[in-house]
Amino acid sequence: MFRLPVFREPLHVGRPNIGDREKLREKIDDALDRRWLSSGPLVRELEERVAALAGTAHAVATCNATVALQLAARATGVQAGAEVIVPSFTWVATPHALDWIGLTPVFCDVDEETAGIDPAHAEKLVGPATGAILGVHAFGRPCPIDELTELADRHGLPLLFDAAHALGSTHRGRPVGGFGSAEVFSFHATKFINSFEGGALVTDDPRVAERARAMRNFGIGEDREVISSGTNAKMSEASAAMGLVSLERVDALIDQNTRNHRLYEEGLAGLPGISVRGQAPGERANHQYLVIEIDQAAAGVHADQVHAVLERHNVLARRYFHPCCHQLAPYSDRPETHAPLPLPRSEALAERVLALPTGEVIGEEEIDGVCRIIRWAVETGCADGAPSTTD
């Protein structure tokens, strides 16, 4: 017996978590009553909460994480025209943030277990034009922080981290956020903690924090004098209100994501060629992304085929991150700037991974249905139809 589609309403990857609406309205009403709508007390409170969660001395809230990455590069002294070593297995926003301010992304291969930048390959890419190294904590799992720190220190380079996926996760028992020269979080609507749209730079370096605060406000320092070039990267009070309400539920959301991760593991256990990507052993993980790998040789189907079957049944999975950044315009179109090197581990990983729905709107019934579809797809070689949800 078959039913098409299995789900009447679409199941999305990254569907926003919504906190206490009444508390949100109260905070926004307070901002309206104060007639202080940008860079006010709610933003400062959010910065304090984020710094506490990240275990850092400073947090600088911004209108989004892309501009926070740009501020991080500028505030740590990376000059226009410099090269920045960055993994190709990441969302294209990471290299775009660099490219947009005149920096050249130099794409590095990854370690397939962590999906993070490969320090050995990064070492080979360091040259006279290198201005920084930018690691990415893909799917919230910390990249090889210790090895990258040693590499950056040895070459005297700033070390930055795109921690958009990693708020609330830990490395060696320490919260992600306090490593390198600066790290950047995203509070985009798709992140498990969101501020409608927003981001934050976190750091223990007071000079980096001071420069970033000025740069996000047209280069204006605390004494209201212009001290540098800058841009408009300020966060609104409404966004900060949403972020604060969201942060109140951080532990509950992590618990929900962790339960979902376990349910997916149980639902897909024993299925040839299908595995749920794990997090760092012994560390806290936010599990905001649920990612499976599909080994075509063992499963008999490709990730694209499973993706297509899921989509026919209203499960809107995502091929994060396929193609890799070095295979995308504008980088693939500029071989004179971006050497068209093969990055075999990045490319192989991108062929295998598929992100599935999780979060507060996904529960046991939905996960059971998604796992049934995947099982059916593998067992039948992705023939037409769908598994019954009633058998």
How would you describe this protein?
- InterPro entries: DegT/StrS_aminotransferase (IPR000653), PyrdxlP-dep_Trfase (IPR015424), PyrdxlP-dep_Trfase_major (IPR015421), PyrdxlP-dep_Trfase_small (IPR015422).
- It comes from Streptomyces rochei.
- This protein has helices at residues 21-34, 41-54, 65-75, 93-99, 119-125, 145-155, 206-215, 237-247, 250-268, 296-299, 303-312, 344-352, 364-380, and strands at 11-12, 58-62, 83-87, 104-108, 110-111, 116-117, 130-136, 159-162, 170-171, 174-175, 182-186, 199-203, 274-276, 290-294, 315-316, 353-356.
- It is α/β, with parallel strands linked by helices and 391 residues long.
- The protein has two domains: 21-247, Aspartate Aminotransferase, domain 2, CATH 3.40.640.10; 249-380, Aspartate Aminotransferase, domain 1, CATH 3.90.1150.10.
- Strands 2-12-11-8-7-3-4 form a seven-stranded mixed β-sheet, with helices on both faces. The protein has a three-stranded antiparallel β-sheet with strand order 13-14-16. Strands 1-15 form a two-stranded parallel sheet.
- It starts with 10 loop residues before the first strand and ends in an 11-residue tail after the last helix.
Architecture of the largest domain in CATH? Answer: 3-Layer(aba) Sandwich
| Helix/strand order | EHHEHEHEEEHEHEEEEEHHHEEHHEHEH
Work out the radius of gyration.
21 Å
**Order of strands, widest sheet:** 2-12-11-8-7-3-4
Q: Give the helix level as a range of percent.
A: 25-40%
The percentage of residues in β strands lies in: 15-25%
Report on the biggest sheet.
7 strands, mixed
Tell me how many strands there are.
Answer: 16
Poorly predicted parts: none
Report, as a whole number of angstroms, the end-to-end distance: 8 Å
Structural class label: alpha/beta
- What's the CATH H-level homologous superfamily of the largest domain? Type I PLP-dependent aspartate aminotransferase-like (Major domain)
In total, how many domains does the architecture comprise? Answer: 2
**CATH T-level topology of the largest domain:** Aspartate Aminotransferase, domain 2
CATH class of the largest domain: Alpha Beta
How would you state the average pLDDT, rounded?
A: 95
Shape: globular
Number of helices: 13
Family: Belongs to the DegT/DnrJ/EryC1 family.
Organism: Streptomyces rochei
Enzyme class: transferase
Keywords: Aminotransferase, Pyridoxal phosphate, Transferase
